[in-house]
Amino acid sequence: MVIHKEVIDKSSVIPIYYQLFKLIEEQIRRGDLKPGESLPTEHEISSRFEISRMTVRRAISELVAAGMVYAQQGRGTFVATPKLDNIIFELNDFNEEIKKRGLNYKTTLLEAKIIRANTELKAKFQVDEEHKRFLYFRTVLSAEDERLSYEVKYTIYSKSKPILESELKDPSLPSLIVAHTEYMPMSSKKVLQVAACTEEEAVILGIAPNSPVFLIEQTIYDQDLKTVGWSKSVYRGDRYKLTSYDGWYKKD
Amino acid sequence: MVIHKEVIDKSSVIPIYYQLFKLIEEQIRRGDLKPGESLPTEHEISSRFEISRMTVRRAISELVAAGMVYAQQGRGTFVATPKLDNIIFELNDFNEEIKKRGLNYKTTLLEAKIIRANTELKAKFQVDEEHKRFLYFRTVLSAEDERLSYEVKYTIYSKSKPILESELKDPSLPSLIVAHTEYMPMSSKKVLQVAACTEEEAVILGIAPNSPVFLIEQTIYDQDLKTVGWSKSVYRGDRYKLTSYDGWYKKD
DNA sequence: TAATTATAATTGTCTATACATTCAAACTTT
DNA sequence: AAAGTTTGAATGTATAGACAATTATAATTA
Asked: In Å, how far is A177's CA from the nearest CA of chain B?
């Protein structure tokens, strides 16, 4: 971790702990501190910046609260690994149920291929090179031989690495991005809508055409908010629901 | 705030700040500390329990993080008011848009009456008294004369207080509960589903029958998880979507 | 060699203190 | 009476240090 002493201004009105928090956050976002790497010890940061250990702890505890690092007593403090769920929006009322009952739960690959950029993809990924290639996946999720959801995924294919067997088995978009592009997935946007399913989707999922379904589009970005992955999922409306518990207290 | 000194055990393996955190949390949940009320000052807590102010601050900062309390420099620390959103699940992509553009946004009351308990309500609210009365509201939300969502609300009617003009205008379930029952809304469960809308709903919302809609059922509980309010909302599928930004870092 | 025991390093908790910042109320001046 | 000023009280930030708890490593012992 390369930290320059000058960047912390003790006489500033901005609290020291906050300057340090921002400093480390920046290093993580820029990739100078990679997931799994350890931060310097509290003592080391403390003496390097000539600030007290409690102030360092304050900064680190903010990072912990933000989920960017985790601390282990006796070992050290480490950068957390970015975690982007693919099964989105915690649409898992049904998925949880399946797991709890130990039911048969599998992902079936319908199609996997490398395709050339078309107008739609070029727009989505903000690229204009005609030759650009993309990875394209179509999968179906099913439990006990009942089909539950259908998903289409795209990501850039720039490393020309072969697609592994394991990737075909259960292709997760973030891991595909890591494997086949130079980009690092950092954040995502998910949009959930309701829709009447199309003829094609109805056939795939074994439901009546125009049945109500959840439609989730996920866009994955790197640290510069460049689009590096995109997926669209269709979930059977009669098999999924979204539950949230909330409340207690919030500030006015 | 009634705090007994004995409840904090300095020699316990459980950290003092955590004991204090739990202690104050309990007082808030029990209603001994009511929303808006101020906590004793840090100095006062510190001297009353004979612990350092920094330890008190640690406990309070946990409460702040949990949203149960908020601190104001120069004034004090106050219990936050319970906040249960009625427009649920942040289904507000569209609502936000409306507000941003300053569009005409209004709630229309279709029906408001006091009804007797029927079988369905008795089951939902876990009551068996035949005579029990309930408040019943039916409202429509619209913007620029386009109807967007339809909502049915129920709560217990036990105080026999008249329904105020202001309540008819934009009846919020949590505030109705506070006004007309002895209970205090504390938490809520929301279930979001997709559905094909019924004939009745189609007419009310001005859409085609069987159009896909969001269906949200909200149950409101008091601190003992007793059901004190229930609502069902239907949102036009072509007008609402749910967006969530997430990611960055999470601990493994 | 394998198991056990010390040791050092690292984070976790806690104290006591100092000064800064903000807010509200009391006081003073106009 | 209104406006400005002072003052006290509350939270916010920061320090230095002590000891506890946990982990990994090194040293010792069986």
From this structure: 15
Threshold 0.85, pTM exceeds: no
- Of B178, B176, B140, B181, nearest to B35 by C-alpha is B178
Residue range A66-78: mean pLDDT, rounded: 92
* Nucleotides in C strand less than 7 A from protein CB: 8-18, 21-24
**Is residue A156 very low, low, confident or very high in pLDDT (cuts 50, 70, 90)?**
very high
What part of B 196-215 touches A (C-beta under 8 Å)? 196, 210-214
pLDDT at A175: 81
Higher pLDDT, B5 or A248: A248
What is the tens place of the pLDDT at every residue in A9-32?
888 889 999 999 999 998 888 878
What is the pLDDT, as a whole number, of residue A84? 60
Pick from B68, B80, B189: CB nearest A243: B189
For chain B, the structural domain boundaries read 5-79, 93-236
Residue A171 is encoded by which pair of tokens? 């292709």
At residue A87, the pLDDT reads 44
Q: Between B104 and A176, whose confidence is greater?
A: A176
Residues A137-166 have a mean pLDDT of 85
| B116 CB-to-strand D distance under 7 Å | no
Give contacts of B242 with chain A, Cβ < 8 Å: 89, 191-193
Q: Which of B189, B210, B240 sits opposite A245 (nearest CB)?
A: B189
Tell me, letter by letter, the H, E, C secondary structure of chain B. CCCCHHHCCCCCCCCHHHHHHHHHHHHHHHCCCCCCCECCCHHHHHHHHCCCHHHHHHHHHHHHHCCCEEEECCCEEEECCECCCCCCCCCCHHHHHHHHCCCCEEEEEEEEEEEECCHHHHHHCCCCCCCCEEEEEEEEEEECCEEEEEEEEEEECCCCCCCCHHHHHCCCHHHHHHHHCCCCCCEEEEEEEEEECCHHHHHHHCCCCCCEEEEEEEEEECCCCCEEEEEEEEEECCCCCEEEEEECECCC
Same CATH topology for B5-79 and B93-236: the answer is no
Looking at the complex, does the CB of residue A184 fall below 8 Å from at least one CB of chain B? no
Q: Which of residues 117-156 of B touch A (CB under 8 A)?
A: none
Q: B5-79 architecture in CATH?
A: Orthogonal Bundle (1.10)
B66 touches chain A (CB under 8 A): yes
Q: Please give the pLDDT value at position A76.
A: 94
Q: What is the average pLDDT score of chain B?
A: 83
Closest approach of chain B CAs to the CA of A250, in angstroms? 5
Task: State the count of interchain CB pairs (< 8 A) between A and B.
Answer: 146
Q: Homologous superfamily of A93-236 in CATH?
A: Chorismate lyase-like (3.40.1410.10)
